[in-house]
Amino acid sequence: MAGRRQLKSREGGFLIAVIGDEDTTTGFLLAGVGDNQPSHGSNFFVVDPKHTPVQAIEEAFNKFTEREDIAIILINQYIADKIRTTVTRFNAPVPAILEIPSKEHPYDPSKDGILQRVRGMLGSA
Q1: Has residue 96 got a pLDDT over 90?
Q2: What three-state secondary structure class fits 59?
Q3: Cα–Cα distance measured from residue 48 to residue 21, given in angstroms and rounded to the nearest whole number
Q4: Residue range(s) defining the domain that contains residue 69
Q5: Is there a domain that residue 35 lies in?
Q6: Residues 6+ away with beta carbon under 8 Å from 75
């Protein structure tokens, strides 16, 4: 497993990162997911669908995937679609990338990379 990052024991546990619209991100922050350390910055990125550039979304995604204190990244599926190439290219087991629906955009299983990989492993279409 050379080159693959593994979860190591970490004092204080691991974090969940969120890349989402304002409603989604606010919901997770109210649930206690938020963290903002001077050494790492925050573990959330709010996307304004009309104003946030795709490059900023990609930068946040790449920053979260490189952090060793993040075990899961939750991203609204319609936002993941904007950076689909970057999301698909990321194939490390940690952090796990989970695409979630938003209030205005329902979940589409045909676009979910993890579900596609599982179907490929099981040999189903």
Answers
A1: yes
A2: helix
A3: 6
A4: 15-122
A5: yes
A6: 18, 19, 20, 61, 87, 97, 98, 99, 100
| Residue 2 falls inside a structural domain | no
Residue 106 within any structural domain of the chain? yes
Pairing of strands 41-42, 36-37: antiparallel
Kindly report the pTM of this predicted structure.
Answer: 0.83
Residue 39 tokens read as 């050494």
Is there a domain that residue 24 lies in?
yes
Helix ranges (DSSP H) in 1-110: 22-30, 54-66, 77-82, 84-89
Strands 96-100 and 70-76: parallel
* C-alpha–C-alpha distance, residues 6 and 10, integer Å: 12
Given this model, what pLDDT does residue 11 score?
A: 65
Model pLDDT for residues 14-65, shown as the tens digit of each residue: 999 999 999 999 999 999 999 998 888 999 999 999 999 999 999 999 999 9
Count of structural domains within the chain:
1
> Are the CB atoms for 112 and 99 separated by under 8 Å?
yes
Per the model's pLDDT, the better-predicted residue between 22 and 119 turns out to be 22
Greatest alpha-carbon span in the chain: 46
CATH number at residue 26: 3.40.50.10580
